[in-house]
Amino acid sequence: MIFSFDSTPYNMSNTERLGGQFYLLEDFMTRQEPLGAYASIADVQRHTSLSRPTIYRLIERGAFEAIKVGRNTRIVTASVEAYFASLPRLPAKAA
């Protein structure tokens, strides 16, 4: 990780400046807390980059298992993992 506490700008291709600090994008993008057994819609959005409407469509189709806790919707994270595991894999490009 690269930190900068002065005003000298670094010109690196895959870095991002945040509050006077530089972070490698790969490190910044992978800083996520692991999900528990149940996750909110917002947590699933953050971890999968799926939109809110897409998540609700997948719940309606039965691809994601969800429960209601009062007014809150919680998704069973094992069902999200199972859904992504069931998707077809793209073949590797020939060199």
UniProtKB/TrEMBL annotation:
Q: Report domain Helix-turn-helix positions.
A: 40-86
**A Pfam entry, by short name:** HTH_17
GO MF annotation list: DNA binding
Q: What InterPro entries does this protein map onto?
A: HTH_17, SinI_DNA-bd
* Domain of life of the source: Bacteria
Database matches in NCBIfam families: excise
Indicate what this protein is called per its UniProt record.
Helix-turn-helix domain-containing protein
Q: What is the lineage of its organism?
A: Bacteria, Pseudomonadati, Pseudomonadota, Alphaproteobacteria, Acetobacterales
